Every structure is written in structure tokens, then in C-alpha cells.
Amino acid sequence: MHRILMRAAFALALGAGSVAAQTLPLPQNLINLNSNEGAALLQDSEALQSYWPLSIQFVTQENQAFCGVASIVMVLNALAVPAPATPEFEPYKTFTQENVFTPATEKVLPQETLRKMGMTLDQVGGFISTYGVKAEVRHASETSLEEFRTLARDNLGAPNRHVIVNYLRKSIGQEKGGHISPLAAYDADTDRFLLLDVARYKYPPVWISAVELFNAMNTTDSDNQDRTRGFVLISR
């Protein structure tokens, strides 16, 4: 089983590496999944139920405003939510960063606006809720590190549950603004979460400490009425 996990970890990381051959250097506080230490953390993780379906559906955001869209597409496909027809893949159906938009999502956030401004935490919750899944939005200022750790760990360790986080990159030593990506696993020994960064051209999947991630979420977003960023708990 350990060997299978190791191979799976490297398959995911190397797949991301082929997309992101010239990614930015990682700060020392983050651990690349595509490393011996990163693979070992996955092997020892207590909560990684989310990892398996998400790793299969891992995508790169199509443009620099689509981190929320890419994260939502990953989660919808991982949850096996019925997808719309996709002409280029007929007769097969899957969510893409093009067909995920519907009249219902337009009411939450018009695609034209999204392409210019990106997506806020509350818009992530509202957008994915139009597909009949349960989405609980939690702003960091309204919770605590301990509650976030518990909720995220429990969701990552259960089937048909996922966590999308909205955080400030510069708070964790990356470049540089607000970003959205799904979590995939949690390692209790190191108190780190595995973050599947959808900007795969920029950074690889990384392990980040719960404290640093929470602090990065506990930052204000001027595009969301200066509310803090946070996380969305998603289940079907």
C-alpha cells in the first residue's frame, strides 16, 4: 500500500511538473509534493479521502482569473455530479472550464465579470451551489484555526466531501495576490494540508502548515466588501 501511495503521489506531482516546467521557486516553508518529503507526507496522511478523486480530476486554470472556476470543475467532477454535454468529448460528459457556466451561475457571477475580476469566497459557494451540492462558506474571521483544522480534516477524510480555500499568496511567501484552490489531504504529525494549486504553470502542489494557511485565509479581500477570505466545505 505504501508503494502504491508513493507512486500515486509522484504520478500526480510529475504530471503537474510537465505542465509547470518553469514554476516559480518555492519558499522554504512549503513542501513540494514532488519530493521525497512531500511523498512521505502523503503516505503518512490520516485524512486523504479527497486526494484520490481530485488527483484524477486535477486541472490547470485556463487563465489567471479562473482559479475559482478550475477548483469548482475539479470538485464537481470528483463528486460525480451529472455533467452537461461536451461536443468535443461526445458521447462522454465531463465538466470543463467552459461548460460549467449556466444561466444559474450567471445570476451568481456573470462570466464577463469573472473573466476580469476573478471570484470571491462567497461567489465560489454560490456558484457551486447551483449544481445541487451543499456548500458551506466559512470566513476566517468568523471561525478559528482549531475549528478550521477540525472541519477541513474531517471533510478530507470522508467520501464525497471536499474543501476549497481562498487565501492570500504573499502571506505564505508566494507571488502574490488572492488565490483559490482545493485541499486534498491532511497530515497530523506535521499539521500540514496538501494544497492542489490549480495555477500549475506557477506553483506545484504543496504541503502547507495549518497555521500559515489559516493566516493566509484570515486576510481581507477588497473585492468582497473587505471581508476575510476563508474556505468552503462542499458535500453531496
Structure description:
With 236 residues, the chain is α+β, with helices and mostly antiparallel strands. 37% of the residues lie in helices and 19% in strands. The protein has helices at residues 2-19, 36-44, 51-56, 67-78, 103-108, 111-117, 121-129, 145-156, 210-217, and strands at 31-32, 134-139, 161-168, 178-187, 192-195, 206-209, 220-221, 227-228, 230-235.
How would the blueprint of this fold be written?
Layout lengths: L1 H18 L11 E2 L3 H9 L6 H6 L10 H12 L24 H6 L2 H7 L3 H9 L4 E6 L5 H12 L4 E8 L9 E10 L4 E4 L10 E4 H8 L2 E2 L5 E2 L1 E6 L1
Antiparallel strand pairs: 1-6, 2-9, 3-4, 3-9, 4-5, 5-6, 7-8
What is CATH's topology name?
Cathepsin B, Chain A
Number of helices: 9
Averaged pLDDT? 92
Name given to the CATH architecture: Alpha-Beta Complex
Beginning-to-end CA distance, first to last residue: 28 Å
CATH domain class name:
Alpha Beta
- Our estimate of the beta-strand percent is 15-25%
Structural class: alpha+beta
Give, in spatial order, the strands making up the sheet with the most strands: 1-6-5-4-3-9-2
The string of secondary-structure elements, in order, is HEHHHHHHEHEEEEHEEE
What is the total tally of β strands?
Answer: 9
Q: Identify the CATH homologous superfamily.
A: Phytochelatin synthase, N-terminal domain
Q: Which regions are unreliable across 5 or more consecutive residues at pLDDT < 50?
A: 1-7, 13-20
Which geometry do the CA atoms define?
globular
Number of domains: 1
| Helix proportion | 25-40%
Main sheet characteristics? 7 strands, antiparallel
Computed Rg: 16 Å
